[in-house]
Amino acid sequence: MAHKSISLNVNGIARKFSKLGYNISVLAQDFSIIPKNDPKQALRLRRFFISLGIYILNLSLAYLGYKAGIMELKALYGNWLLILSVNIILYIAFRSGWNKRMKDPSLTALQICVASLVVMYGIFFVYQARGVLLSVYVLILLFGIFRLDTRQFLYVSAFILLTYGIDIALLKIFRPHDIILESEFFQWTALAVVLISVSFIGGNISALRRELSSSRKKIQESLAKIQEMAIQDDLTGFYNRRHLMELIENERSRAARTGATFSLAMMDLDKFKSVNDTLGHQAGDAVLMTFANIIRNVLRKTDFCGRYGGEEFLVVLTQTNLREAKVFAERIRVCVEDCLVFETEKGQKSHVTVSIGLAEHLKTEGVYRTISRADEAVYKAKKNGRNRVEVSE
User: Fold this and answer.
1) Average pLDDT for the chain
2) How far apart are CA 46 and CA 50, in angstroms?
3) CA distance 20 to 314
4) 354 neighbors 335 (Cβ within 8 angstroms)
5) Active site residue: 184, 251, 311, 360, which one?
6) Terminus-to-terminus CA distance in the chain, angstroms?
7) Active-site residue flag, 311
8) What is the reported pLDDT for 15?
9) In this structure, are strands 262-269 and 304-309 parallel, antiparallel, or unpaired?
10) Which residues, including other chains, have CB under 8 Å from residue 121's CB and lie 6 or more apart?
């Protein structure tokens, strides 16, 4: 019994490892250094790689310091290990999506503070060349132009000044013969002036960048709205005739390529002129909008409709033959008869009806011929008493 229990446990563990291995293999197949399905995260990672490139340049600088006898070998290794560890942790944070939980998903301020700690390490061990390393602080701070405002710039500047102050204190404790406090205070004050100046300049540049980004977004929204207005009928919201013809031509090309079929439904409101003449154009517009809503509620997602002329609407029924189109058209006709009602000046209710002509597109004809046949079917419906569906065979 005990042997059986051990065997079951082993099998269970084996299954778990097998599942884990499968999940890792799937992850490995889908893995990419920069995510392809998240543009914002991809941009953050590109900025991270910019900072990584700066780190690599500083690695070479540290190596030159070692060759020049300014930095000891153990300090060099420590510097490399610190930089490697910091960047691995940051990359994991970005690639795993952990950064999205933060208020600033770019982790800009955090990256600046971490980089300043790396410089702090370098200043302590390469104190003779601190003038070069102090200039690196300015380079680190400029990284904030991507994201930080002036207040945030001042915060990270204060953190940099704090780390440099801690360096001075540590040197005073462990290597007092290497520093002169008066001179260090002057250096610290000069760095403070530079960092504060850079903070205000960087904050203004960052603000300008955000304004440009906001303006570009507004321009894109305006262009999208203009484009929408250019292809839509103002009253009904359906496509205008020009854009409708482009869509029908595209559907004809698709049908020719795939062998699919489509049908056209030409719809004309019956005696619409009498509505305008009796109740005025506002009442006529209300009838058209109601009619458009009826069509919209019956249309499938793959179909589309346009206002072909005054009270004429043309519906394109994709992947639909005449038999199926007739079912659709009959639904529209019944809905219009039941729902499209208006009151006359005498308070009487009057029903608005619709005549519909159907034509299935033939591969041997152009779209204008198909539309013409649908129009002829509408004329036939009018001639045969209105409020009916006719088909062009």
Assistant:
1) 84
2) 6
3) 56
4) no
5) 311
6) 80
7) yes
8) 65
9) unpaired
10) 78, 79, 82
Using only C-alpha atoms, the chain has a radius of gyration, in whole angstroms, of: 37
Cα 80 from chain centroid?
38
Alpha carbon distance 117, 136 (integer Å)? 12
Q: How far apart are CA 190 and CA 184, in angstroms?
A: 10
What are the start-end ranges of the E strands in the chain? Answer: 262-269, 304-309, 312-318, 341-343, 349-351, 354-360, 389-392
Please report the beta strands in 310-370, taking only residues with DSSP state E, as ranges in sequence order.
Answer: 312-318, 341-343, 349-351, 354-360
Task: Return the H-helix or E-strand segment holding 390.
Answer: strand 389-392
Q: Which of 169, 161, 72 is nearest to 113 (CA)?
A: 161
Which positions ≥6 away from 236 have C-beta within 8 Å? 288, 289, 291, 292, 307, 313
pTM higher than 0.85:
no
List 391's β-bridge partners, or say none.
Answer: 358
Superfamily in which the 241-392 domain is placed by CATH? Reverse transcriptase/Diguanylate cyclase domain (3.30.70.270)
| Two tokens, residue 38 | 């998240």
Domain segments of the chain: what residues? 32-222, 241-392
What confidence tens digit (pLDDT) does each residue in 82-101 have?
889 988 999 998 888 898 88
User: What is d(CA 220, CA 218) in angstroms, rounded to the nearest whole number?
Assistant: 5
